[in-house]
Amino acid sequence: MPLTLKPGTAWQDAWQRALAAAPEAFREDRVRNLWNGAWQSDGHPLPAISPVDGSPIAGPPRLDAEAAGQAVRASLDQHRDWRHVPLPERRARVAAALDTLTEHRELLALLLVWEIGKPWRLAQADVDRAIDGVRWYVDGIDPMLEGRAPLDGPVSNIASWNYPMSVLVHAMLVQALAGNAVIAKTPTDGGLACLTLACALAHREGLPVTLVSGSGGELSEALVRAPEIGCVSFVGGRDTGGRVATAVADLGKRHILEQEGLNCWGIWEYSDWEALSAVIPKLFDYGKQRCTAYPRFVVQRSCFDAFLAAYLPAVRSVRLGHPLAVAAPEDPLPELDFGPLINAAKAKELTDQVAEAVDRGAVPLHRGSLADGHFLPGQDTSAYLPPVTLLNPPPSSPLHHAEPFGPVDTIVLVDTEAELLAAMNASNGALVATLSCDDQDTAKRLAAEVRAFKIGLGKPRSRGDRDELFGGFGASWRGAFVGGDLLVRAVTQGPPDERPPGNFPDYHLMPEA
């Protein structure tokens, strides 16, 4: 039976619900920017399409540098007032914002499906992690702020598109709870309507939120270099992150820069293949478009046949397709591991990289097919890429040394522990890594030599929530570490001689155990 779109889940359904929920933030034909405490019909709206099926959706109203500068100066005025609001009132306003976000949970998730292609389960999880994570701070903020004060200026947030709620909105609300006005730039590739609705709900509760759209190059002078900015919080790739790092280092500005790294899963003297096979499909959540995804397996050569016997059936079970397609109107939304990549250009880029790597000697071990996907009849599938697995990508390929940010696994074979460690440290630092060894002492010994902030033993590590700390080694992170009380410390001022844990140009300091 041909699949059909689940009734009530079309983009126009979501758009009309957003207009009804926050008419101040949306117009029939556009989304508005939020600055100077008001919704502004400024900027030049660009066309945009959904990665789900290539259909038109709302595009970002891009500001120019002059307007962005005005927005930053207005945010400083908000900051100077907000930093003196007593903590009980700040806590009450953030809690009220969380309540209204909870009321609109399903709409926020549906907007994420259309704008960035998240399957329904993962879109809901993104919203829930934001709400639940900030509630943890609301309940426990008092001791975290003891002896601390807000920054001298607002926090500027520039984040990638993959986690608009659980990373960006979460950070913004905690920053506001800590006494700062907050500014966010809408990610260029997606999340506009979801973020706009979330900011509208927060703004109604009196939180000092600014949300603007524009190109990173044009707005960086205002959002990164402006003297009014108290801290820059960035999540994204190394190229852009490097430019931001240079700017904040030159200015001596407080910063939190989360950048990509090639997260590796090492296999050494291992035999519990059933456990590994069970986790492989989960590693494809959201098509590995995550900063904590594992796109590289470093495998002991003598284990390779057993590894393949466990890996290949698992990767063949991965499910992809249209996140809102059902066989019958009353059916629940499908349980998928991932939908589209963020856009067709990214799917083509990875397809070309795979082809080039194979031409230069990589061995294709698995190639999925869109024919096995879960799609509407005749829909545009140009943003979809089924799983691919390559053995030994050549050093000339980007797949050898960089995170693909898509469902492309690479496998490197090694014969010695030294080769294992060299391969796992190929990207000069990572956010997470995992080692699978039968002997836990061996795993711990090897883990001490892996340059990743979090290292799992037989199990994947993630960014984490609530009191779990997060950071990176090497080029994967610049500035203060976050998570738990470290997030609050990163966006507040403590004693004059304080050295926050983090990765800075003049020192690297890990949190206390």
Describe the structure in your own words.
- This protein is α/β, with parallel strands linked by helices.
- Helix content is 38%, strand content 19%.
- An 8-stranded mixed beta sheet has the order 13-12-11-14-15-24-26-27, with helices on both faces. Strands 19-20-21-17-16-22-23 form a 7-stranded mixed beta sheet, sandwiched between helices.
- The longest helix has 25 residues, at 120-144.
- The protein is globular and about 65 Å long.
- It comes from Streptomyces pathocidini.
- InterPro entries: Ald_DH/histidinol_DH (IPR016161), Ald_DH_C (IPR016163), Ald_DH_N (IPR016162), Aldehyde_DH_dom (IPR015590).
Q: How are the SSEs placed, and which strands pair?
A:
Blueprint: E1 4-5, H1 11-21, E2 26-27, E3 30-31, E4 33-35, E5 38-40, E6 44-45, E7 48-49, E8 56-57, E9 61-62, H2 65-82, H3 87-103, H4 105-116, H5 120-144, E10 149-150, E11 155-159, H6 164-177, E12 182-185, H7 192-204, E13 209-212, H8 216-225, E14 231-236, H9 238-251, E15 254-259, E16 264-267, H10 273-279, E17 296-300, H11 304-316, E18 325-326, H12 344-359, E19 363-367, E20 388-391, H13 398-401, E21 408-414, H14 417-424, E22 430-436, H15 440-447, E23 452-457, E24 477-480, H16 485-490, E25 492-493, E26 502-503, E27 508-509
Parallel strand pairs: 11-12, 11-14, 12-13, 14-15, 16-17, 16-22, 17-21, 20-21, 22-23
Antiparallel strand pairs: 1-18, 2-3, 4-5, 6-9, 7-8, 10-25, 15-24, 19-20, 24-26, 26-27
Domain Aldehyde dehydrogenase: 43-485
Keywords: Oxidoreductase
Protein name: Aldehyde dehydrogenase family protein
